[in-house]
User: What shape does this take?
Amino acid sequence: MSDFPIIETKRESGNSFQSLIRKFLLKGSTLTGIILLLGISGILAFITVKFGFTAGAVLLAAIIALPTAYFSVAFPKFGMIVLFILASIIFLFIRIGVNFPLGTLIDAFQALLILGFLIKQKNNPNWKIYKNPITTMILIWIGYNILQFINPEAESRLAWVYTIRSVALVMLMYFVFLWNLDSKKFIRLMLKVWIAISFVVALYAVKQEFIGFFPFEERSMDNDLSRALLFINGHWRKASIYSDPVTFSYNMVITALLCFGLCWGPRPVYKKVILGVLCVFFLYVMLFSGTRGAYVLFPAAMILFAILHLNKKVMLFSAAAGLFFAFLIFMPTSNQYLQRFQTAFKPSQDDSYRARQINQERIQPYIQTHPFGGGLGACGVWGQRFAPNSFLANFPPDSGYARVAVELGWIGLILICTLMFVVLKSGINYFFRIKDPELKNYCLCMILVVFALNVGNYPQEALIQFPSSFFFYLAIALINAVYILDKKTEKSKEENKSVKPTRLIY
Assistant: This one.
């Protein structure tokens, strides 16, 4: 027994020695870090002074980009968060005047995430999560877009090269997102990131509305096209840090729907109050965009919400909300925001809506006689750039579905509509099958988001611009992810019930 104190003393002395080593290493690493930071700062200062601000900015970007790229491949969940932040701020840097192909930067970052996904799949393969109708339709849609390269009606192959990035490459993010959405904890984190990004974007729009634009923003709008599109009735439409008012308004609406849906989930009352306030705030800020197409999205999603919740409480809420919206639509007002809101529900009085109808009627014979369309990127910016003399180059699509019909033909239109139908059908089926209340609530939120973006894709192009495209495929991935997680939870519960207690024999 006398040996135990000696052994304990040795352990204590060993632990003390190890703790001293840790302290020494910690101090050493801290000192090394300080020296490294000072050295980097000195090098940056020297290069900036010697070669100018651009050289210093490029070096700083490289210092940040290299570790970010590594961590995005090694830790794809971290890369997902960075992707959403980067996609949200990219157009702010374009307005500032950063002379760098930032669109290519987004493409490169997506390629890094795909690389990380493939590495993870090689080390721990799991393709079962992709065996569902949504994945099948996404693969068919990607394949059809790739085959458009050999479309004989296409005027330019370069237009296809530039356009396929915003179609196939972005859609591949669905596979990356679904792989990483493997726990409730990370799903909660991604939804918080989503709301946080939108909150910052909304605050920036409030600054634009009540304080004004920065000088670099005024310079970017100092042209005839911007004034024609953005200056209406003596007031500038706001886009916040996004590319255009449409993208800004649609993102405000879907985030408002996310907050609204989360209010009906199993969470504390104080969180529901915060989410309700945020929902109203996002809808209010959305009005600054002056985008009529966005005004109908929230009421349309509320109809679907009421259908999915056929109970007394929801029906009373829906009836009250319907009366409120009817009051807003028909009340006499001199407020320019309310007047523009009211015209969204009276399309016959809207000049832009009538012009859009005329354009679509004019292009219908072409769509009917071209089942594969005029080729990806045939109309819009890339059509004017690579085939300026073609018939479709100067056609303004003004609608995501109209663009698909023109560029990919009525076959492409059938495919995209089938894809959206399968997503919504699967989501609604999962919603009624999921038993976990939290996961069921997340499924509801994503159904509302996908439905709203589909409605918004008719009057405008809702699914091709950053970050809307990423949010859209995140929502689709979440619809599958929550169902998979719920099945795993139920399976583990059944396995625990099937295990019989062991009898002890004495």
